[in-house]
Amino acid sequence: MKNRLLSGFCLLVLGFFFADSVTAQTANAGPDQTVTEGNNVALDGSDSSDPEDQALTYTWSGGLFRGNQVELSPNNMDDEPTFVAPAWTERYEITFTLVVTDPDGNSSPEDTVIITVNATDQPPTARIPTFRTVVGEPDSFRPFPLTWFGVGEDDGGPPVLLWTQTPNQLPVIRTENSDTINPKIFIPNLTASTVVNFTLTATESAGAMRSATANLSVTIVADDDPPRANAGPAQTADEREIVTLDGSGSEDDGENLTYEWSAPAGITLSDTTAVQPTFTAPDRIDDYELTFTLTVTDPDTNTGTSSVVIRVTAEAEPPIISAGEDQTVRNGDTVTLNGSGSDPEGGTLIYSWTQAEPAELTVELTNADTLEPTFVAPESAASYTLGFVLAVSDDVSTVTDTVTVAVSGNLRETVELHEAVLPEVVAAVSNAVSSAIRTRTSSVNARAANRIAFAGNSTWASFLSQQASRYTDGQRMDLRDLLSDTQFNLVLNAKADGTGEAATDCPSCGLSIWGSSSYQNIQDDTADNSYEGGLFSVQFGLDTGIGRSLLVGGLINLSAGEFDYVQSGISGIYELELASVHPYFSLSLYNDRLDLWGQGGMGIGEAITRSEGVKRDSDLTLTSWALGGSLSLFAIRSTTFSVQAEFAATEIEAKVKNTAVPASTKVDSLRTRVALEASSTSEMSGGGEFSRSISIGVLTDEGDTSLDEGVEVATKAGYSRGRGSFEIYFYGLSDGGDYEEWGISTTLLFRVLPRGGLHFSLKPEYGGNSQGGLVDASRSLWEDAGVLSGESRSTGMRLKTTTGWTLLSARGKVTPYFESTLNAYDTVYTAGVRWQPARSLDFDFEHTSTTADEGLRMKVSWRF
User: Fold this and answer.
1) What's the pLDDT at 404?
2) N or C: which terminus of the chain has fewer CB atoms within 10 Å of its end residue's CB?
3) CA-CA distances (angstroms) from residue 702 to 416, 462, 647, 686, 782?
4) Paired sense of beta strands 235-238 and 303-313, if any
5) CA gyration radius for the chain?
């Protein structure tokens, strides 16, 4: 029993290993064949087999004849394809290979078949169309191409062709390319029509050298003899002499002729159709010859030509030249010299420009061998003069002339600085004035309150929630930084209600003096052309209320800026001062639901460029206007909806003084902004207050500022309870192009305890804006319009942490604090102490340190 099991197992294993060999496919390409060239040959793969009798797919390959694939019909996938045996001069073989494949993709081994082809000997042939070719007689010997059809065929390759004219036939016709299938012949003038016979002979190139012939007859039709032209005898003349040509010797068997003279370039004949026209011999450097051609035509339009040569003796004259007008340009300009030159004799002139000696500065002339070479005026802070000499030669004599080019000093860099800096100044001034007036007129009750705040702050808490880290970029602090965002308001003769406060029936009545200031950092770090500095602006206003709803007044704006710059490798200082007057008004209607304000302005100033000891002054003029307002539309439950709009236009023109080249730069800005705002505040059931707001605005920015049009979105939500508060803020701006500004910020704040103790704030921010930093969380939709410029270049995270401890003393509260700001661009540490000797007065002393700079700062806030 065990033996039987063992035998069965072995048979099963052997069956598994030999299963493929039992079921393999077999290709049969058929028997070898011997055929004759030109025969139709059939291949036969029908005897191929499959053990399982499945349908097979046939693939024929090979079949190369002299490197070319023989084409099988209908295709190489047929079981019995056919082909025509190609002709050749000797016996040859063609090999085909067959592979068959079953539906499962199993392929058989290759099988081959050899086809032997016997060659036959074919004589050449020559064929020419039987029709006769008729050609017209040309006026003179010239090639006349004929396309003659002849074909030679031979087993040994293309036959040797030869065209010959019938022997002893007149006229004898000259033939070109007589050994090709398409020769060219030349037909002479004939006195009578005649027939010319040609024979094409095709001879075998190998073997028995047999040949075949074909004939072609060409009929040449003769016409009348052309007229005989005579342009007259050759002549000799002097320059500026009047020469007469003579064609009266032309003839044509007594028939009337018409005349047509052709002259060399630059020569004008008195009458090109006259028998004897005249011309004046021009001036030239050397003796020269002029060839004139006469064409005569008879009434049958037959023509004849003749030429005559006039030799002119030259008298040398110098060329007439000019080096052009003197020029005045700016340094760095590409200058083109405008020379001119002419030769009275019409000869070729040679031009050469060189720099005159002595040369204050050496320049490189481009195309110095032309009338209009160019060069780049070298950069220099001081003005200078360059001289150039134009030399013109006519190979006999050389004539020279000179020209001077006066180059003004730092004019070009001044103009380029105006073009770079003034757009930023326009934006900053427009924003400072509009922001000041907008803030001043935003609330009737605030207009009558006495207030003064240095550095924009009244308490430490307001600094955290409103100032939003203005100085965390590591810039050095100075007096203008300290005064930035300083504001004051003094009411001189407000109507009082007996308590010293403004009367409630007319809070704005009376005369008020107010003021504000701001500082805007302006810089550009482009490779070879950069500037860095800031613009400090201060506004002083005087206004009075007329009734409860109208406020009118005037504002004086003073702006000053200083910038260090590098322009085309030259460093210097760019300073500007600008003073402008802006009358304004504010109107409140419909129970304070509609507030309107507007301003206009004109100003003058001066810009100064200093580089390498050279000073250049420019006059500045400013014009501006702005109109804005807000309207409370409606309220739904606790949510108030309002719309805000603002239109502002500012233009500054800079004219460089004391320069021979007029140089002015005009920069303008026209901004339109419209926004819809919704806001609400509600008391929470568990205590505390929850506020939220959203603003959606659109703007267009035309002129030289960076934005074209854009959409702004700002939303804010906050919760406060007791001494702590939480706030989240999002701001986004996009102009639909490369520029965008956006960010999100949250603030967690624990305020100072009344009798001292710890206070703490944590403020993470994320976003990107034009300055490469983060969006200021305290920014509203209408603020800082002037700095929204440039392209968004970076995005990053910033984390700001502030910790302090309030101590009580006999002279008030003292609060040491520490602040750190971490972001992708810098790390800022601030250590400071606040002294509050009274509830209405704060003094802050700070030291700020960054990876690049450090500085000291003092802040004062006084409230009364």
Assistant:
1) 92
2) N
3) 21, 36, 12, 51, 18
4) parallel
5) 51
Q: E strands of 444-593, at which residues?
A: 451-453, 487-491, 510-524, 529-546, 550-567, 570-589
Of 413 and 37, which is predicted with more confidence? 37
Question: Which of 336-340, 400-404, 789-793 is predicted least confidently?
Answer: 789-793
Tokens of 379: 């950069």
> Alpha-carbon torsion 746, 752, 753, 758, what sign?
positive
428 membership: H or E segment, kind and range: helix 411-441
Which CA distances in Å does 184 have to 203, 688, 784?
21, 111, 87
Residue among 436, 441, 451, 644 at smallest CA distance from 549: 441
Average pLDDT (254-272) is: 87
Q: Are 355 and 390 in contact (CB under 8 A)?
A: no
| Contact between residue 199 and residue 215 where contact means Cβ atoms under 8 Å apart | yes
Confidence of residue 567 (pLDDT cuts 50, 70, 90): confident
Q: Which of 696, 79, 784 is nearest to 467 (CA)?
A: 784
Cβ atoms of residues 72 and 62 within 8 Å = no
Provide the pLDDT for residue 262: 93
How high is the pLDDT of residue 242? 92
Per-residue model confidence as pLDDT tens digits over 807-819: 776 677 888 888 8
In total, the chain counts a number of residues equal to: 864
User: Which structure tokens are listed for 487?
Assistant: 């504001």
Q: Which of 296, 212, 285 is nearest to 253 (CA)?
A: 296
Instruction: Give the Cα-Cα-Cα angle 121, 122, 125 (nearest 5 degrees).
Output: 160
Cα 65 to Cα 76: distance, rounded to the nearest angstrom: 16
With residue 693 as reference, give the H or E element that holds it.
Answer: strand 689-703
Round to whole Å and give the CA distance between 71 and 87. Answer: 14
What is the enclosing helix (H) or strand (E) of 460? helix 460-462
Site of tokens 């016709």: 173
Q: Name the nearest CA neighbour of 83 among 97, 70, 102, 68.
A: 70
- Give the C-alpha distances (Å, rounded to integers) separating 853 from 474, 519, 773, 801: 6, 19, 17, 20
Take residue 45 and report the two structure tokens written for it.
């793969």
Q: How far apart are CA 804 and CA 814, in angstroms?
A: 10
> Which sign, positive or negative, has the C-alpha torsion 75, 77, 78, 81?
positive
In single-letter form, the type of residue at position 200 comes to L
Q: How confident is the model at residue 150 (pLDDT cuts 50, 70, 90)?
A: very low
> What's the CA gap between 441 and 459, in Å, rounded?
23
Neighbours of 369 (CB within 10 A): 10
pLDDT in tens, 831-855: 888 888 876 677 878 887 877 667 7
Burial, 172: exposed, middle or buried (Cβ in 10 Å; 0-12, 13-18, 19+)?
A: exposed
List, edge to edge, every strand of the sheet that includes 142-145: 142-145, 184-187, 174-176
